[in-house]
Amino acid sequence: MTAVPAPGLVIGGMVGLQCGAALTTSLYPVVGPAGVVTLRLAIAAVVLIALWRPGLRWDRGTWGIVVASGTLLAGHHLSYYEAVDRIPLGAATTVEFAGPFLIALAGSRRVTDLLWACAAALGVVLLSYSGTDLSLAGLAFAALAGCCWAGYILVGKRLAERVPDGRGLALAVAWGALLSLPYGVAQAGFRLLDPSVLAPAVAVAVLSSVLPYSFQLEALRRLTPRVFGVLTSLEPAVGALVGLLFLGQHLALLQWLGIAAVALASIGASRGTSERGQRPATTDVTEPQITVGNIDP
After folding, report:
1. What's the predicted TM-score (pTM) here?
2. Which end of the chain has fewer CB atoms surrounding its CB within 10 Å, N or C?
């Protein structure tokens, strides 16, 4: 993955995430939102642990980052899928985008940075335009998902710097799976073990968790949280295209204009990333540095 440009990794992860989301349409009626999340995280954890074989002898600081990352992942998944179960996908994505949008604004030092972020926000609003009444509970779940995703961007950056491979990610996903397990069992029970459910769940876990998380972790090593946050604004556009190609979900003119806006904002944000802004993050992966954060007792 080191040969792939960081923006390409972010986009590749979003494509896998949305293709996996398209596959979940057959699982929702059987196991519900929490059941889908539990299967997705549990299977992804098994695959990642088998690939990376992480040990347990880490310092307390690293364990704290791992636990925080897994908690935010579980919180994001559970709240986002509950939101999608109550309000349209575009509306849920719009509210969720508030999280990375605030991250994008927080680190801005140039007027052009703010313009790209605002263009992305406008595009998401146009893309998710809906004339229907929205559930307050659905909006609340989507807002919680946005908070969790913003937190994961910040904590995931620290995890990528602290653990230079997929071992930390494997344990974070495993912790997230354990947190989501009670909710999944309460909602789906023994249906989680149905072979007809497990087969598509494996594909969903690989497409929606294993590949995107691995790509995102590598991208976070080379991008600032602000640029990563703006690039993730392309996800609604990717989701719309996947929905059109695989689910036959057609869009209105305003929604296609929204896709163009978020695509333009993502391209502008990635082109605005200077080489000197990326070099320190890349160096952190290959050359260990002595910092206060790495000298935990």
Report:
1. 0.75
2. C
- According to DSSP, residue 195 is labeled H
What distance in Å separates the CA atoms of residue 168 and residue 59, rounded to the nearest whole number? Answer: 12
Q: Are 86 and 138 in contact (CB under 8 A)?
A: yes
Q: What is the pLDDT of residue 45?
A: 93
Quote the strand ranges of the chain, DSSP E. Answer: none
pLDDT-flagged residues of the chain (< 70) = 1, 89-90, 104-105, 107-108, 127-134, 249, 251, 266-267, 269-297
For the chain, give the longest Cα–Cα distance: 57
- The distance in angstroms from the start CA to the end CA of the chain is 33
pLDDT digits (tens, 9 = 90+) for 167-180: 998 999 999 999 99
Rg for the chain (alpha carbons), in Å?
Answer: 19
- DSSP codes of every residue in 100-154: HHHHHHHT--SHHHHHHHHHHHHHHHHHT---S---HHHHHHHHHHHHHHHHHHH
DSSP 4: S
pLDDT one-digit tens code per residue, 117-126: 788 778 777 7
CA geometry: angle 158, 74, 48, nearest 5 deg: 70
